[in-house]
Amino acid sequence: MLKFQRMALNALAMALVFTAGTGVSANCWWTAYEPDVPKCLKR
Amino acid sequence: MISSVSNCIAKYIGTILNSSPDEIEVYVYGSQIIVGAIVKVVAILSLAWVLNTLNTTLILFITFASFRCFGGGAHLNSYARCLIFGITVIVGLGTLTQIDFSRITITLLFILIFIAAVYTGLKWVPGDTEKKQITDNKIRLRQKQKYFLVLIVWFLAVIFLMLLNLDNYALAIVLGCMGSILLITPAGYQLLLGIDKLATEKGGEIYDA
Prior knowledge:
heterodimer, A: mainly alpha, B: mainly alpha
């Protein structure tokens, strides 16, 4: 069960990192609000 | 609220996976985008469903999102404002598609929006913001190419829908394009700046939803 939870969270973390990557790319999310980009992604 | 939920998600993942503070910051940013988008989609589609305009609003929304993705444009300073503005524009235009306009009116609007979209594409795409500035000319050119690709697909889709006599759907994608390109033009930036100023004057400081 714990192994499955870790796998699921790893997948979720990867999805979040991917989304964050698209957030700083030239493409724009279609919403009219941009959250502040974290410093580590500005580097 | 969006920030709190995102922080909770990120901290939970970070604790279990022993992530570094930098990684947790990235999780927070990613969660803010996803949670914010989900809340907005659910709000828009629920309201459209209640108003019995779900089909046309969905098509309008997809069109709006496609142009916005590559064209960029103005942004608001807080999520709450974005949510209210987004719902008002998308659902408002979606409701407008229920009016039975004549074929000539839709065709004229289509031609007008097409010319405006080409001009906007050549002159202002990609519309960047303070938080995200696109200075590299190669990237700017690539964004323009993607925008024009979307415009070609949009153009063919409008003609296809009109040939099938689906005028309400044709109007929906024409209005979706109109809403999106408005936010790329200087007028769109002025409009959102005005909304931000007005909201700050009336509501005080900027806070998250």
